Amino acid sequence: MARQKPLHLYRNIGIIAHIDAGKTTTTERILYYTGKKHQIIDVHDTKDGKGSTTTDYLEQEKKRGITIQSAAVSTEWKGHQINVIDTPGHVDFTIEVNRSLRVLDGAVVVFDGVAGVEPQTETNWRLADQYNVPRMCYINKMDRIGANFKHAVNGIKNRLGANIVLCQVPLGSSDDFIGMVDLIAGAGYIWDSSDKDSKWETIPLDQVADHPKVKAFTTTADTEWVSQLAELRAHSIESAVEMDDDAMHAYLEGQEPTLETLKKCIRKGCVAGKLVPVFCGSSYRNKGVQQMLDGVIDYMPYPGENGGISMVDEDGNIIGEQPVTDDAPVRALAFKVINDQFGTLTFTRIYSGVIKKGDTLQNVTRGKKERIGRIVEVQANATKEIDEVRAGDICAFVSLKETETGDSLTDQQHPVLLERMRFPDPVISVAVEPKSRNDIDKLSTALYKMVKADPSLRMEVDQETGQTVLKGMGELHLEITIDRMRTELGVEANMGKPKVSFREAFGQTVEHTYTHKKQSGGSGQFAEVKMIFEPGEPGSGVVFSDEVVGGRVPREYIPAVEHAITVESRQGQVAGYEVLDFKARLVDGKYHDVDSSALAFEIAGRACFREAQKMSKPKLLEPVMKLEVVTEADYLGDVIGDINRRRGSVSEQGQKGTNAFVQGFVPLAEMFGYINFLRSATSGRGTFSMIFDHYEEVPASMVAKLMEKEAK
Q1: What is the mean pLDDT of residues 94-104?
Q2: Strand duo 10-16 + 80-86: pairing
Q3: Would you call 114 helix, strand, or coil by DSSP?
Q4: Which of 633, 631, 632, 663 is nearest to 648 (CA)?
Q5: Cα separation of 119 and 18, whole Å?
Q6: Where is the Tr-type G domain (predicted)?
């Protein structure tokens, strides 16, 4: 079957933002205005559990009014196929943004018009940088009291370092928000009302200031934007034509660029990642979503427009690029696995080739074959069977047995690995046990399914206590995982008190020699290693250096010593946590012609590491979180005092719209149950967000106290 729609009419985009910026509300409006649904459900109307927005369909999402897992929907706008992924904004679910950005061609970054750039926006922006995803900005909630377009724009420029082009500026703010001016088209759009089917009036740029609704503006900031429209348009035109030499040359010679030329220039800059178009609106009040959709079509890339997918070798080194085309061997990436009533759904982005029902593909990551039984197009929690998928498509395969998140699926005759996804390490762990004896056998199966679906979860069995330990990105992440096991898999479990994932480090450089000798009849064992262990810079990892000269340790035994150090570093000598950031130098040693073996040198390497770490005055490291609290100014003193009591430090404070904010760094070990303090201290008005920042040494006086607390 031939391709139904040319590739240039496709857009694969993600909606990303900080929690509560309005991503799900914006997605609901997109589906309504593109005719995909005929009723709008608002997030705050779902907490009774009866209704649900299209993309927040999980019971946990409805109850809390937040997005927990990314959901894919497909729709059409002006002849273009738009595949949209609505992603979570909460830091505990960054993994969902991570894997969505990995397979998307563009992203719409949504901002709260009052708060501007928030911590999770910065995290998501860095992820988009990491995967080279072109972006456009949509400053939402311009109807809220305290909305400040200038503050949001300055944040995008200064905190995110974006080279922006203002495509729109708002007309009014808070209750006076009536529409926006399109600086590129040179026209103003003023809505008749806030109704979902309200029409808007299009007015030439030079007549906007004389409109009765504009003349009624009550604040200086709103009238200032209107007075600067001609100047702002000129600045946007200059930013656009800078992206194209011919357009720039014509403009400098006094030739006014056409609308088509301007759009072409902005698109060129946006696709290359050199320019970020900025739009505005109020999704909740139904203003600006259609114009933002036009922006997606005008400026976001189609699949493959900004390059294909990198192909890598076993070590992750890039060996080539696969363009997005049907006429090539199949190359696809599984980016998400979920378990639901249909069985296992493996969400996959097709980069090249055509996959038909019944085809057999190679899972190159795991060296296994996978038969494609059913292919479905996913509409949030609904599915529609399809017979084939082509380059540029996002689909789901049903009941793949071997494939996990991040696996490469390719043509059997042309196997190749695709560039891997990068996942964050968990920072918090809890003991999990079945609620009743009936759930004992089901628990490990349920946990395995949850961990397979979410790479930011880890499951381990504590060798000493025999407890099953679940590790994740935060208290909410783990709490929701346990709740989803109940609702989706019918397994009830109890969650123990959260534990922090500490780390260890060498305190100082140590030189140590260890001799392993066992000669009690029969073949003996002999190995001697002399090693120097040096503390490394944060983030440097474990570095092994072979500096043996003169064959004092035969070449074939050196990998055994390196393996010993790698394995032994996973369990330190302070409290059994992983040892980070050190260099292990093998400088000398001795061997025996008969009694030496790889095993003997591995044993010697392990013992040398253990003794050397103890001798180095080792440090215990703890995860330190970047914290931001937003509340009314009256409560700021209590919040700052509490941060200091939790061994934290304040780095910045200021105003966000009508509220005050404080940012700082606090050890995770001190942050459990913080929401309860914040609610009581701010009469329920304070909100906070927290993200892992770095590991820091635990003060010597606190080590025993913390270890005692963790052991309980």
Answers
A1: 80
A2: parallel
A3: coil
A4: 663
A5: 7
A6: 8-305
Taking the mean position of all CA atoms in its chain, how far away is CA 241?
33
Summarize pLDDT for 438-486 with one digit per residue, the tens.
777 788 888 888 888 788 888 887 664 567 888 887 777 888 888 888 8
Distance CA 692, CA 674 (A): 15
Amino acid occupying residue 15: I
- Cβ-based burial of 556 (10 A; exposed 0-12, middle 13-18, buried ≥19): exposed
Question: What whole-number distance in Å separates Cα of residue 304 and Cα of residue 289?
Answer: 26
SS3 457: coil
With beta carbons less than 8 A apart as the criterion, state whether 508 and 535 touch: yes
- Which residue, 110, 95, 135, 101, is CA-closest to 19? 110
For 410, the 3-state DSSP assignment is strand
Query: How far apart (Å, rounded) are the C-alpha atoms in residues 427 and 293?
Result: 38
Distance, in Å, from the CA atom of 181 to the CA atom of 176, rounded to the nearest integer, reads 14
N residues, the chain: 712
Rounded Cα distance, 362 and 490, in Å: 33
Q: Which residues contact 392 (CB under 8 A, 6 or more apart)?
A: 7, 10, 12, 302, 303, 304, 324, 350
In the annotated binding site, the residues are 17-24, 86-90, 140-143
Other C-beta atoms lying within 10 Å of the C-beta of residue 321: 11
Long-range contacts formed by 177-180: CB under 8 A, 24+ apart: 177/142, 177/143, 177/147, 177/282, 177/285, 177/287, 178/213, 178/214, 179/287, 179/288, 180/279, 180/280, 180/281, 180/287, 180/288, 180/291
CA 555 to chain centre: 43
Known binding-site residues for GTP equal 17-24, 86-90, 140-143
Please give the model's pTM, rounded to 2 decimal places.
0.70
Q: How many Å apart are CA 121 and CA 444, to the nearest integer?
A: 35
List, for residues 569-614, the tens digit of each pLDDT value.
Answer: 988 888 888 898 999 999 999 998 888 899 999 999 999 999 999 9
CB 223 within 8 A of CB 213: no
Query: How many Cα atoms are found within 13 Å in the side-chain-facing hemisphere of 234?
Result: 6
Torsion of CA 691, 692, 697, 700, to 10 degrees: 50
Longest dimension (CA), the chain: 103
At residue 47, the pLDDT reads: 45
The Cα 472–Cα 483 span in angstroms is 14
